[in-house]
Structures
1.
Amino acid sequence: MIIVMSSRKKEDVEQVVQKVKEFGYRPHVIEGVERTIIAAVGDDREKHRLTALESMPHVEQVLPILKAYKLASREVRPEPTVIEVGGVKIGAGHFCIVGGPCSVESEAQIMESARIVKEAGANMLRGGAYKPRTSPYSFQGLEAEGLLLLEEAGKAFGLPVVTEVMNVEQVPLVEEHADMFQIGARNMQNYGLLKAVGKSSKPVFLKRGMMSTINELLMSAEYIMSEGNPNVVLCERGIRTFETETRNTLDIQAVPVLQKYTHLPIVIDPSHASGHWDLVTPMARAAVAAGADGIMVEVHPHPEAAFSDGPQSLKPEKFVNLIREIRPLLEVMKKEVTYLP
Ligand code: PEP
Ligand code: MN
């Protein structure tokens, strides 16, 4: 249920929050531009009892939330949300450009990658330390060592870092050394992992499963948010279709569809969507034009020598060109890229 408050005063809101708890529901206070609302989440079967709260002072209305996802829904928060990642803003006009290699391979490689993406105009660094590979014989990532190298590279170039966490056991270490968790496509419905990052204070970059619907993506975001972490960025990274010319099919419509249903920012990953470096820039342009809140692009100093995803990784000069090409589009779409000082 949504409890719409007529007062924004802390003590008035607190009174209702206490009452919601007494009913056995979890209150999530959302302070919007216009008004404060309290989302009461919990057992759906008994929710009608909460309508009694309408008799409390400063409660304007108690309304049911119609969507199965609640905290992620626009019903609960009509205005777009801004997520902050180590000082960089994403959403509501703030566009993020995340660049970096698929995997962290060595100190020299990640340092060079960070320099390249920073100079090109990216504002965040990516790099996988724990890699979910289709084959157990493929490079599995440098793991904890990779995480430390990524952290060091991010600090050296003033770029917040995002990296994949593959299981619950890795959460504390990734939380300590990264600015943002990445939940990979293969783990989008790993509910134990979603709950674990939901208990963290670090933001989460949630990638859509390659065989997941938009509704399922939002339900996964809800898992994270319902544990108390409201800082979720959604990522469309291509879905599996009958088409074999590309690695996946970029569902560009997911951007306006998601914007209709959720206040959370939505980022496009044209690298995993296409699988070919020469498709990445056109799809990045499409992402901006569709209204996305950012892009995540794989960039490697030497794609031909990459340990993973070389064919879809951009060479440094191609990434420079990509950013050059999207700048005028960003202006048209009234998006700003913020940089750390
Ligand atoms: C990645 O970002 O390198 C990755 C493995 O992505 P996805 O989970 O979308 O396949
Ligand atoms: Mn990759």
2.
Amino acid sequence: MVLDGITLTYPDGDGRLTALDAVSLEAPAGSLTAVVGPSGSGKSSLLAVAATLVTPERGSVVVGGTDTGGLSRADQAVLRRERIGIVFQQPNLLPSLTAAEQLQLMAHMSGRQPRTARDRALELLDAVGLADRAHRRPHQLSGGQRQRVNIARALMNEPAVLLVDEPTSALDHERGAAVLDLLVTLTRERSTATLLVTHDRAHLERADRTVTMADGRLVGPPYGG
Ligand code: ADP
Ligand code: MG
């Protein structure tokens, strides 16, 4: 994925607040880029633009060779469903569905074969260590397990890009570390271009690269390195 010269502003009283200021970032397939920076520096805005959920004033978002700016909103929604996996802080699972069904629903919305979808759902739940929890509903799972279902669901349609916003902030340190290990492994195995917003310095060692944001700009790697 390539983000090139992204500028995004929000209405702010009489004026506009610049949330992203000419941000350019390349995220290669099969590598995990950590995004750090203080609260309010624009990290979530960057993911929202990368996800094509928000259209920037300037700049381009290229996903798997497709410049998303040239697409209609409807085609962007299709691209989002087919090519982009999104994992936010709160899993947002549907209470009435089992873990496997949460995943199968994604494939169903993309018009995929139910049998293939079921096999893939079970394979992914196995990959995230939940083979024996596939038929549980969210309330029968721990917080860490729910976040694993969330990650597996984001991978259901084999996305080129995986966007993850503070996935471990609701978890204790040990479970957070396990989720991070999982993201690193899946990024390699599934060859996703992964952007991970995190507060946890321990995650940075596992990332292929870290970029730092401040006041809507990319200010380079942390520690001046
Ligand atoms: P971070 O994720 O790094 O905490 P955000 O991207 O959420 O930062 O926010 C960047 C800036 O944009 C902040 O000043 C925030 O208050 C502002 N902002 C974020 N979302 C909105 C919105 N929907 N409307 C107006 N301002 C927003
Ligand atoms: Mg944020």
